[in-house]
Amino acid sequence: MTKVTLIGILLGSALALTSIKSNAALLVSDDTIDLAGTTAVMQPDLAGPVIYDELIYDSVSPSGNDIFQVGINIQNRVSRSDTDGNLIFAPRIISSLNNTSGNFLVDRAVISGFSDFELDVNYRTDGVGDKGPNSASRSVDGNQLSFDFLSPLVISNLFENPQQDSYFLSIYSNATAFANTGSMSIFGRHLDYPDEVFEFNFAGIAVPINMPVHVPEPALLTLFLTCFAGFVMFKRH
Questions:
Q1: Whether 202 contacts 183, CB under 8 Å
Q2: What is residue 66's predicted lDDT score, i.e. its pLDDT?
Q3: What is the pTM of this model?
Q4: Which residues, in sequence order, are CB contacts of 21 under 8 Å at separation 6+?
């Protein structure tokens, strides 16, 4: 292999690694980033098994009219990275069959419960869904993430217009444990009720937590100390 060929291979590898990391979007406190979507090929850290998956439902009625009900499911999903074992939080907005006349538009999703964990944020274009958010921002204390759909998700009656679901969000963290202690709010508007802002609220959203420190039980601790003392006495004799 010639020197020129070797340099070319090294340069090509470096460019490939650069392209893999190009979709990484580290979101720090009090900051806003644009989102372009990503895949497990672009970011291999995102590949890994799903370890938790459930649906959480909420609905609202424009002007309190129960006949015209808008429903949304949140797919509350967590996966674990094959690369380092860290957790990827991947909620998704799923519209549900409803009796709404006209279009309901989802503009924003807000998730609380991320504390000060390091987060790499985007959305996945290699999964199911129709549309991803255009930008993401993080609160000053780092605990809250906001995702804005500048081109809103459309939720409407299936017999009038196709309903849209979001892609899976991709919130890659430096956490290895999670709890369903977070919350999520969805904000939207109905074209037939221009003066109202509608809010869906979901509890039990998966968020990162610090791995609990294991404290030995008193009986085990006493047994350990007794054995250790006996070992010390044996060594002295």
A1: yes
A2: 65
A3: 0.78
A4: 43
